[in-house]
Amino acid sequence: VQLQASGGGLVQAGGSLRLSCAASRTISDFNLLGWYRQAPGNERELVAQIRGGGSTVIADSVKGRFTISRDNAKNTVYLQMNNLKPEDTAVYYCNVRLSVINYWGQGTQVIVSS
């Protein structure tokens, strides 16, 4: 499984970005689809996730601002990020799980200036 993440960049506080994660196989096969992030000096943390059955999990720190979605026809998972804050600055990684195996994208940098 290969994952290609894109959409990161530099944005001012209050701005928006949409991250995309394109998978090399049908995303319907995966039992978890999600986004994590890692800021310098911090551990990688879950941002948002789509679980089996379609339920979603959103981290409290981004709730109300970030939305995760999927497009099965494009085999792509999205993370819409609105009202970005400087503390959202991090490398964002897409993650999928197939059975018990986790796969990671290469990461896309998001920098939010104040």
Shape: globular
Mean pLDDT: 96
Rg calculated over all Cα atoms: 13 Å
Count of strand segments: 11
Could you give a quick summary of the protein structure above?
By secondary structure, the protein is mainly β. The chain has strands at 3-6, 9-12, 17-23, 32-38, 45-51, 56-58, 66-71, 76-81, 90-98, 101-104, 108-113. The model has no long low-confidence stretch (mean pLDDT 96).
Task: Give the helices and strands, then pairings.
Layout: E1 3-6, E2 9-12, E3 17-23, E4 32-38, E5 45-51, E6 56-58, E7 66-71, E8 76-81, E9 90-98, E10 101-104, E11 108-113
Parallel strand pairs: 2-11
Antiparallel strand pairs: 1-3, 3-8, 4-5, 4-9, 5-6, 7-8, 9-10, 9-11
Account of the protein in words:
Strands 2, 4, 5, 6, 9, 10 and 11 form a 7-stranded mixed sheet that branches. Strands 1-3-8-7 form a 4-stranded antiparallel sheet, with no helix packed on it. The chain is mainly beta and about 110 residues long. Helices cover about 0% and strands about 55% of the residues. It is globular and about 40 Å long. The mean pLDDT is about 95. The chain contains no helices and 11 strands.
Question: Which short descriptors sum up this protein?
Answer:
single chain, 114 residues, mainly beta, 7-stranded mixed beta sheet, 4-stranded antiparallel beta sheet, 0% helix, globular
